[in-house]
Amino acid sequence: MKKIRACIVGATGYGGRETIKMFLRHPHVEIASVAADDSFIGTKISDSFQDLRGLVDLTCQKADTATLAQSCDVAMLGTPHGIAMKMAPVFLKAGVKVIDFSADFRIQNTKVFEAFYGMPQSAPDLLAKAVYGLPELNADEVKKADLLSNPGCFPTSVILGLAPLLKKGLTEPHAFSVSITGTSGAGRKAALSMLHAELEGTIRPYRIGKHQHTPEMEQELSALAGEKFTLNFVPELGGFSRGIISTLNIRLKAKKSVDELIDLYKQFYAGKRFIRVYDKGQYPELRNVIHTNFCDIGVYCEGTDCLIFSAIDNLLKGQAGQAVQNMNLMFGFDEAAGLP
After folding, report:
1. Domain that holds residue 127
2. Residue 329: exposed, middle, or buried by beta-carbon count in 10 A (0-12, 13-18, 19+)?
3. According to its UniProt record, which residues of this chain constitute the active site (predicted)?
4. Do 145 and 188 belong to one domain?
5. CATH of the domain at 280
6. Are residues 103 and 211 in the same domain?
7. pTM for this one?
8. Is 72 a catalytic residue?
9. DSSP β-ladder status, 60-62 and 29-36
10. CA 284, CA 311: separation in Å to the nearest integer?
11. pLDDT digits (tens, 9 = 90+) for 45-104
């Protein structure tokens, strides 16, 4: 099979590094170019990430969309919010498939997007074209996509945790989530609040009531439930580098046993290679999912009160790993190709 050519924009971020590492072992992908912001132009990508030394010697280019589009089949856009909506139209016009790591095409309501991200949606005509890429739930749509909106890290954990219950119509239309994430979720920029000395040994709630992933989750959960669904979302920052574990509390319409719910989850995710549903009395731990593309799920209930535990690596299943999984489906490759 002929290799496809990939360009990675935002290559000096954590998601960019993970994407490069996966492409280096991918049997059907050639890295055509890496692009970054002006401060990295002309430097080797291995200067930014020493673990890539001797593996890839590509030089960071200017993120000029028209130039990059001439030599790639897929563009992996690991850019800050607001950039992909400007770049995607140029790539798409050139026949390049686009996978956007940012939130630019996730939220269908442009007013909601502007309220949470503080910027207008400059390419609203592309929203109908964008496919929300949770392959365990919509693989058929992903396979046909030219513009793929990669889900957020928190939404991946929460939506996969709740999807079986909502699709079966078993719950009330509201849930509560406490989701703890590692510091890499904030990106690679320097900030006093993100220093190890400030976070080691603690867990810090943040953006309570106004986290930008909330409308994304409510949009997708409502679609799964077939009715308006609300989420009380509490994001917390932990003193570790990577991983997300979500504890989801939801009320069932009727009593179910733990065994019944575990059977439901195992049947719902049967054949899904990156979902692992735990047996009764067993629950996910971060150490079992970091550096993997798995989402591990555990279930507990008493009467109609149900607890779901969902754990992922925020940089892989929550970002770059899921992006590569989606890319594989878009190009007809084995879904797990290149993934750890």
Report:
1. 4-150+319-330
2. buried
3. 153
4. no
5. 3.30.360.10
6. no
7. 0.97
8. no
9. parallel
10. 6
11. 999 999 999 999 899 999 999 999 999 999 999 999 999 999 999 999 999 999 999 999
